[in-house]
Automatic annotation (TrEMBL):
GO terms for molecular function: transaminase activity. PANTHER family: GROUP II PYRIDOXAL-5-PHOSPHATE DECARBOXYLASE, MIP05841P. This is Aspartate aminotransferase family protein. Keywords: Aminotransferase, Decarboxylase, Lyase, Pyridoxal phosphate, Transferase. It comes from Streptomyces sannanensis. Its cofactor is pyridoxal 5'-phosphate. The lineage of its organism: Bacteria, Bacillati, Actinomycetota, Actinomycetes, Kitasatosporales. The keyword Lyase applies. Belongs to the group II decarboxylase family.
Length: 470
């Protein structure tokens, strides 16, 4: 493999990506691929080639075989799930990161990778107006880039279990005594993390009627009852921006409940956390000073390609006491000096790519003001969509917050029928959910190419299917 060919093929890949992004912006592609299951498998040889092939040929095959069978997550008609958006700055940084090929598990394995990560996590903490103790500069806590909100929650639970057991958890596990609390609106990654951490299913705290947010009084009662029964309430996971309806748990009330009882509070702000870049959209910030950890997916709504979740902790030692591992083959002078951060002790994997570079590129290329403009733009488009839903006979607005609009038709049967029709619609992707036991559809605005015309086009498609159905 001759690295001399790299500049030309990299330039060709960049050209192709730029053309792809133009086609997305013009909505020239479907959102959802046409192929049946197995289409791509059939197109690929069953064994790897014995002899190396030209990179240009592989690039051609990417566009002829792979791209047509992708769901185009950056498409303006992609309204499903929450967005996973990116930007040229992020893509460029990923190329440079890959080319540099460093592995920054410890400060000593790439000092600049670690220190850049410390700095960008602090930048973001300040930009999001997080409590000062979440920054590295404070000397107390700090931020670390994880791959996902799921990993962030798992790491937080491990730290919580370690703290709640004074480290005994390391030898004895949870012995069935530790409890984790959340609501039934928490993302599925929360019960999964609780299972993986050995706690089993979390305790589901009731939600307040009509809001789908955690009832802090019920939480306090449940924790107190569990403690009285000899159990250990180790952690509460609250959500700022639930997946189903973007509901926001009242951190200002949950925080003191946790603080008074010594229970770890993790705040999952995977989606809505980015909105805190805009002062007027800091909807879940009150009480954050009580949180032990907080996580946001920069890869959802901050133009930073996936994966890029940032987890902050208020007390870095609470995390590293639980996560550190120091075999002799990782010993080095910098670690022994105790003056550096080794991010391997802030996450589950040992090795780690240099993900901070893409956040650095994005924050510098867009500037905080540029990212605020993106978020405000998407919020305005969601307002337009919510208005269109509200003004349409036979449609009901179920929830609307930030970039998310949740709606249903008059009867559950009609909603199911609309969902089924939209599932076959190539030009649009919405996702289903259940709210208060009834079906609904979610539309989340967040494509880099979202604009008013695209939202009106998407709404036209939804309306047309609804009318064709009834
Ligand atoms: C509130 C919330 N938490 C966690 C997650 C899971 O995120 P990840 O895929 O980064 O694990 C999501 C995904 O949409 C989410 O909406």
């Amino acid at each position: 493999m001759n690295s001399d060919v790299f500049p030309a093929v990299a330039a060709e890949a960049a050209e192709r990506l730029a053309a792809y992004w133009r086609a997305l912006a013009a909505a020239e592609l479907p959102v959802v691929p046409p192929g049946a299951p197995g289409t791509t498998l059939k197109a690929l040889p069953e064994t790897a080639p014995e002899q190396g092939e030209e990179l240009t040929e592989i690039l051609n095959d990417t566009w002829s075989t792979i791209v047509p069978q992708l769901v185009h997550w950056q498409h303006p008609g992609f309204l499903g799930y929450y967005p996973t958006n990116n930007s040229p700055a992020s893509v460029l940084a990923e190329l440079v990161t890959a080319g540099l090929g460093v592995q920054g598990m410890m400060w000593s394995t790439s000092p600049a990778a670690t220190e850049l990560e410390q700095r960008v996590c602090d930048w973001l903490a300040l930009a999001l107006a997080l409590p000062e103790h979440f920054t590295h500069a404070s000397g107390h806590g700090g931020g670390v880039i994880q791959d996902s909100a799921s990993s962030a929650v798992l790491v937080a639970l491990v730290a919580a279990l370690n703290r709640a057991s004074d480290g005994r958890w390391r030898q004895h596990g949870t012995e069935g005594r530790h409890r984790v609390y959340c609501t039934d609106q928490a993302n599925s990654c929360v019960p999964k993390a609780a299972r993986v951490a050995g706690v089993g299913e979390p305790v589901l705290v009731p939600t307040l009627h009509g809001t789908l947010t955690m009832d802090p009084v019920a939480l306090a009662q449940r924790i107190d009852a569990d403690r009285a029964a000899g159990l250990v309430p180790a952690a509460v996971v609250a959500t700022v921006g639930t997946t189903s309806t973007c509901a926001i748990d009242p951190i200002h009330e949950i925080g003191p409940v946790c603080r008074e009882r010594g229970t770890w509070l993790h705040v999952d702000a995977a989606y809505a956390g980015s909105a805190a870049l805009c002062p007027e959209l800091r909807c879940g910030h009150d009480g954050l000073e009580h949180a032990d950890s907080y996580a946001v997916n920069a890869h959802k709504w901050m133009r930073t390609g996936t994966p890029c979740d940032v987890l902050w902790v208020a007390d870095r030692h609470a995390l590293t006491d639980a996560m550190s591992a120091a075999p002799s083959y990782l010993r080095n002078r910098a670690t022994d000096s105790g003056t550096v951060v080794d991010f391997k002790d802030w996450q589950i994997p040992l090795g780690r790519p240099m993900r901070a570079l893409k956040l650095w590129y994005v924050l510098r290329a867009h500037g905080l003001e540029g990212l605020r403009t993106v978020i405000r733009h998407d919020v305005r488009l969601a307002e337009l969509l919510a208005e269109l839903v509200e003004n349409e006979p036979g449609f009901h607005l179920v929830a609307h917050a930030l970039g998310l609009v949740v709606f249903r038709r008059s009867s559950d049967e009609q909603t199911h029928e609309l969902a089924a029709r939209l599932a076959d619609e190539p030009g649009l992707l919405c996702t289903p959910t259940t709210v208060d036991g009834r079906p609904a559809l979610r539309a989340a605005v967040g494509s880099p190419y979202a604009d008013e015309a695209g939202i009106r086009r998407a709404w036209g498609v939804i309306r047309a299917h609804a009318h064709a159905a009834c």
